[in-house]
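S1.2 Input.
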Amino acid sequence: MVLPMMDLVSILVFATAGFGLFLMLLNRRLFLIPDCRLKRPVMVLSFVVITGGSALLGFVLPSRPCFFIPVGVLCLIVVGEVRRVFIRRKCAGSSPVDAKPHQLDITRPFTTNDLACYRYQVSFHDWRGSAFRIVLLSDFHVDGSFAPELYRHVFSVAEQSCPDLVFMVGDFITKLESLPALSELLRPIGKLGTFAVLGNHDYWTDAEKVGAVVSDCGIRLLTNESVGIEIAGAAVRLTGTDYPWKRGEKTIAASLPGELHLVLSHTPDNIYRISKSGADCVFSGHCHAGQIRLPFAGSIVVPSVYGRRFDHGHFIVNGTHLFVAGGIGTTVLPVRIYCRPDIFIIDISGQPEKESPDNN
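S1.3 Output.
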């Protein structure tokens, strides 16, 4: 049986609209389901029901009278995408100062082990401190999929950058049996300290055990708490938030005058809440930069309530700087396509107080 061209077009349009709805559900809800045996079947079933069901509707329903249904859905998706692009551009921060070495090589799609280092520079004129360097590491996902040499290389590169502070923003493991391997890999490398928060996969396995290993390795774990440090006599406050994985306060304490307030949050989804506190910087991961990206189109699937809005890079939201690293490991599929694992190196400078002139 050969279907008329109009019926084929109807099926295709309905299926495309259904697939768009599935991607929205996948990004904003399905990926946030805690890991369990049913998670992947639920994803597959959702795809079959939504996309396949939409295609079936395109076959069953009269083509012309009902054509407005998928067309309307597609229009809404396009409007949402235009809004995303507008907000993303409005919130765009600086590009890496050495972006040229990281340009896409379309002939090499598999980038699972091709470590990239993105270096940013940020200046806070209201902070009276000296310049210092932060290294941001995220999403190790130690689970046996990658050889220990990859992680050792990551730590070696991070250490060679001579960081003052190192932030590790969660998802240390994917499976609980990987804790011994994690304990052999982790070590503090920041001259002024190495700090961490846990991620959703750490909570979905065993937050207490993961946190114990992180702490035993000499890394300060910040679980919904703040610590104060000084850099060349200037005040810096470090806050870690595990929301929404660890239920508690959704917001953090407001920043104090004269201090630089840096926040560690595994997910960038907290950015709007945190920005209300007046925090200067938020450091996140979680999104894997999409893990699988398409040339010129970017990420497709991102586990965020905001979809692809803050998938990777530097943003400024309500005056608060947001850095979202692509991470090191992977989930679901043990591969990265057109999406290199990365380290963020952020050089922060202030406006040091000038010395009083010598009157003698």
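S1.4 Remarks. The mean pLDDT is 90.
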